[in-house]
Structures are given as C-alpha cells and as structure tokens.
C-alpha cells in the first residue's frame, strides 16, 4: 500500500461556472477540487490550508469509514473543531474499500459554494472489477445559486423565513449555462471560456465507466445520455447486480458507476442531460456534450435534449430504488435480527417563529464542543445528556397532513449505541408545512455502510413491512439512501466503528435547518485524540496536553 499526499489551499475565487461571475470556494484554484486517486489499502494524507481569511472550514471524506481514525472524518462540531483561517489541518486516513466516493466541506453551507470533489479508489494490482470497460470517467453533478451561501444561510435562519428557491443552474463537472440576458447588473459573459458545456469525448464502440456523483445542495437529479442506455454496476463503493436504465435518478451524497457503450450513430454528438426531479423544476436542464470522436466537440447535437421523467412521478423513482441489489458473488448478508429499532419521523416545523426540520420533533443543533472530544473526555456539561426519542406517536400522527407539531424543540442530544450491536433505522417521511407536499430526503450515515432493507409507500407498519418488504437476501450496502415522498426507508447497520458519527439529510439547507442526529458507539475504545482537532468550546484547555 502506498501513501498518497495532497497539499491543498482552500480560497475564495471569482469564477463563472455558469457564465455568471461569483465568489466560489476553490481548492488550489479549482472547483470541483482535484480528484483523489488511490488504491485500496492506501493511506491518504491531505494537508488542508484554510486560506479563506475570515471563515473557518472542515472537509469530510464522504463514504470513507475512518476505521481507527474517527478524528479525520472532517465533521465540524462532531469530530473536530473548525480549521481557523490561516491554519493547516492534516487529514490522514486509510481507503479500505475500492469504489467511488466524494469529499466536501462540512462547515456551514460551504459545500454549496463549490468546496467538493471526487475520490476514486481502485482495486489492488492483479484484482479486476467484475465488469469490463475501456475507459473510466468522472461526472460530478451539482446545483448552483447566484446568491452567496451567506445570504442563503441568513435567509434560512431569519424571521420571516427566506427560502433559497430553486437553483439558477445545474452544473456537470462544474460547468453550467445561465442565460446572461437575465443577469441584470451581474457580470455575465457567455464568451468566457469557462462558460461552455462539459464535453465527454468517446470513441465509437468503446465502453465507458462513468463514475457519477451528486453533490447537490437541494435537488434530486435525473441524468440521461440521449439515445444511450446505462448499466448500473456500483453504488457508494458496492457492486450492484447490473440493471439497465434509460436514465438514472441520483440523490445528493450518492455515487454510481454506470457502463455506457458508445454504440449509436457515430456521425453526430449527443446530449447528456441533467434534470431536476421530485421538486417542481424551475431550472433549465443542465447540459454536457457526449461527443463521438472525431466530430467537433463543440458541435451541438441536432436534437432537443432529453426532458427526463415527470418530476412528480414518485413511483418511478421508488421503483428504481427497489432495483438496487447487491451483485451476486459480492453479497454481504446482514444480521437476520436486530438489537434496536429507531424510528425517525421527518417533519418540517416552526420553532419560536423559525422554520426548521426535525426528527421525532427534535431539531438538531451543533454544540460548541465537538462530540468526539466531549464524549472521550467526559465533558458532559457541553451537550444535552437526555436520550433522544426512539420513535414518534404513530397512532396519533397523520403523515399525509400538514405538520402541526407544536411541540418541536431544539436539541443537541446524541443516540448512544451499544458497541457491536445491530441497529435498524426506519426513516418515515411525512407532509411538510406546505399542503400536499412531501420532499425527498437523502440520508447519509458517517462512519458506516448500511444495508438498505426496504423502501415502501405510506406509513411503515412495524409488523407487516419487515415480513413482506425487507430484503435480507441481497440488500445493497450504501452510505446514502433516499426517503421518498410520503414513504419510508429501512436500513440496518452494525455499530462497530468506535467514534461519533453524524447521520443527516444530505440536502445542505435541511441539515442546516436541523435535519440530523448523531450516534456514539465505543468511544471508550477510541485512541488518544490528536490535539489538532481541539481548541474550540470547552476543548481549548485540552489542546496543550
Ligand atoms: Cu456528505 Cu455529513 O455529509
Ligand atoms: Cu431533507
């Protein structure tokens, strides 16, 4: 195994990802940042210099479990104090499994400002993937706003609430296109070389592995390459029993590998189209060019880009979720029984005039002292010591009605899990505060992969749904999974990774508005914490030791 070293500086830069000039957060001058390329078993060392001058930061390695290095998870407030302006923090961790992962800021809403990128972990020499392809390509998807993330965050926490609204454009590998005639007084230049669609050049007859990931702040996406099918073979670092789709639904925090054969009429180019689903779209289709060599890469395809499935066809998306199974020969069966079931009702609430998201009526807030330090050093006064609720009042709650939930509160309490125990989580969706509206929430678990036991519509039935709808035979393992509108998703994991781990909705504004919880397991087994993660809250005096 090798050591892969990266030296990064995080800075604000003026860039025009969708033609309109805006301050973005870049790594070594670029957004998306550099792709981390490593082999299974390698140690990755990333030296992050915070060059933001007036803002803290932290970077999370999404999908990397951080076994033995919980302090390198990069989750500000959970596993570390923020990296202060001018400071350098060294992340060091082992990439123990092959696959496609991502990284991104885990501080405020900085991810939305462009601080993100990809991690590709290849197999050790001499071992090959269970599928064949000629070339490997990276596709990072994102949604983009022209307002600064500070303005967005201020609106979200204001009374009255100011919603961020739908994105102005969709980015494919950091490129989008905004109609400059609508730019008002902003600097917008459609002849700027940055302002041109991403081009994926393919050689006729060849097979491409596209590693597609979504860093969306808000949107659920549907990705389609005009005229080409895609065979899904990997998700979140796990092999999928291959299935063919015309277009792929992908939620924030998910990664997929798909195989695409350049098998269409080669005398022209084709569109790769990114459409918003699940929310009523108010953003033009994001476009890239699927360029058949040797056609000119800028030559526009002669046809209209795919419009994607109906945005409100929840069943279509649920069915695609249900197709994702572990690949034969690569099935890790889950424990057949569980030690604990935690049911989490996802609601939108108003607390003291603020619009918030809550689980079981509790809206999450981060403490000043990161949990990992507080729990390891028994600084129990630094966060609520009460046990958060295991379920909600199912008999008296109508998930199809606008949430009333007058009793929602703020809390920073954590779920403490018995080390090595098996835990089931039922994520129960509900109506938001808008009548006849329920959103898609992609939930992401730090420090683990979980088995996706099932998805279903309506209210989870604790007797019948596990019997009829749980897949205990070949469930896929993932780190991020969607909870569909008015539906439920059940997952299972083993609490075998000593540390403190966030579990939250990957929509940037939803987590910011309280949609998350934190798990602790085996913290007494965690080794000596590095002083570099300390310094904030009540951990300032620990830093010297
Ligand atoms: Cu990719 Cu806690 O998130
Ligand atoms: Cu959400």
TrEMBL record:
Membrane-spanning residues: none
Statement: the UniProt record of this protein carries the keyword DNA-binding: no
Catalytic activity, EC: 1.10.3.3
Gene Ontology MF term list: copper ion binding; L-ascorbate oxidase activity
SUPFAM superfamilies documented for this protein: Cupredoxins (SSF49503)
Catalysed reactions, as listed in the record: 4 L-ascorbate + O2 = 4 monodehydro-L-ascorbate radical + 2 H2O
Domain Plastocyanin-like: 10-122, 139-294, 400-522
InterPro entries on file: Cu-oxidase-like_N (IPR011707), Cu-oxidase_2nd (IPR001117), Cu-oxidase_C (IPR011706), Cu-oxidase_fam (IPR045087), Cu_oxidase_CS (IPR033138), Cu_oxidase_Cu_BS (IPR002355), Cupredoxin (IPR008972), CuRO_3_AAO (IPR034267)
Gene Ontology annotations for the cellular component aspect, listed alphabetically: extracellular region
Subcellular location, record wording: Secreted
One Pfam family here: Cu-oxidase
UniProt cofactor(s): Cu cation
Alphabetically ordered keywords of this record: Copper, Disulfide bond, Metal-binding, Oxidoreductase, Repeat, Secreted
Subunit (UniProt): Dimer.
Family: Belongs to the multicopper oxidase family.
Identification of the protein by name: L-ascorbate oxidase
Source species: Spirodela intermedia (Intermediate duckweed)
């Amino acid at each position: 195994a090798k050591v892969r070293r990266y030296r990064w500086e995080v800075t604000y830069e003026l860039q025009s990802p969708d033609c309109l000039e805006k301050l973005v957060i870049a790594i070594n001058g670029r957004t998306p940042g550099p792709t981390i390329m490593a082999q299974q078993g390698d140690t990755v060392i990333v030296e992050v210099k915070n060059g933001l001058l007036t803002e803290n930061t932290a970077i999370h390695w999404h999908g990397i479990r951080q076994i033995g290095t919980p302090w390198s998870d990069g989750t500000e407030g959970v596993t570390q104090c923020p990296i202060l302006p001018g400071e350098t923090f060294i992340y060091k961790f082992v990439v123990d499994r092959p696959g496609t992962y991502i990284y991104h800021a885990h501080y405020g809403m900085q991810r939305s400002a462009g601080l993100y990128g990809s991690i590709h972990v290849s197999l050790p020499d001499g071992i090959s993937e269970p599928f064949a392809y000629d070339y490997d390509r990276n596709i990072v998807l994102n949604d983009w706003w022209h307002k600064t993330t500070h303005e967005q965050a201020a609106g979200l926490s204001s009374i009255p609430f100011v919603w961020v609204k739908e994105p102005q454009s969709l980015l494919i590998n950091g490129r989008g296109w905004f109609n400059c005639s609508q730019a008002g007084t902003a600097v917008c230049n459609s002849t700027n070389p940055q302002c041109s669609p991403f081009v994926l050049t393919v050689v006729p007859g060849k097979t491409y592995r596209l590693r597609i990931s979504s860093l969306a702040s808000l949107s659920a996406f549907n990705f389609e390459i005009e005229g080409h099918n895609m065979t899904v073979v990997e998700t979140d670092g796990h092999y999928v029993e291959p299935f063919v789709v015309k277009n792929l639904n992908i939620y924030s925090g998910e990664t997929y590998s798909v195989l695409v054969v350049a098998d269409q009429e080669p005398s022209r180019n084709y569109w790769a189209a990114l459409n918003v689903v699940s929310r009523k779209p108010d953003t033009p289709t994001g476009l890239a060019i699927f360029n058949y060599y040797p056609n000119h890469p800028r030559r526009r395809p002669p046809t209209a880009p795919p419009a994607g499935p109906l945005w409100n066809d929840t069943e279509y998306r649920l069915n695609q979720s249900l197709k994702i199974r572990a690949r034969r020969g690569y099935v890790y069966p889950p424990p057949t029984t569980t030690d604990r079931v935690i049911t989490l009702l996802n609601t939108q609430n108003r607390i003291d005039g603020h619009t918030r998201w809550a689980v079981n009526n509790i809206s999450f807030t981060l403490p000043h002292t990161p949990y990992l330090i507080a729990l390891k050093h028994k600084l129990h006064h630094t966060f609520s010591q009460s046990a958060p609720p295991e379920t909600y009042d199912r008999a008296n709650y109508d998930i199809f009605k606008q949430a009333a939930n007058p009793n929602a509160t703020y809390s920073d309490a954590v779920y403490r899990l018995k080390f090595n125990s098996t835990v089931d989580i039922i994520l129960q969706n509900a109506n938001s505060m808008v009548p006849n509206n329920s959103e898609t929430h992609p939930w992401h678990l730090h420090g683990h992969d979980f088995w996706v036991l099932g998805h279903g519509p309506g209210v989870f039935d604790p007797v019948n749904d596990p019997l009829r709808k749980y897949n205990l035979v070949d469930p896929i393992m993932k780190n991020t999974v969607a909870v569909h509108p008015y539906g439920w998703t059940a997952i299972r994991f083993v609490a075998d990774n000593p540390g403190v781990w966030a579990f939250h909705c990957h929509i940037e504004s939803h987590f910011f508005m309280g949609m998350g919880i934190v798990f602790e397991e085996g913290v007494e087994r965690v080794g000596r914490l590095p002083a570099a993660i300390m310094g904030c809250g009540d951990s300032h005096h620990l830093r010297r030791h």
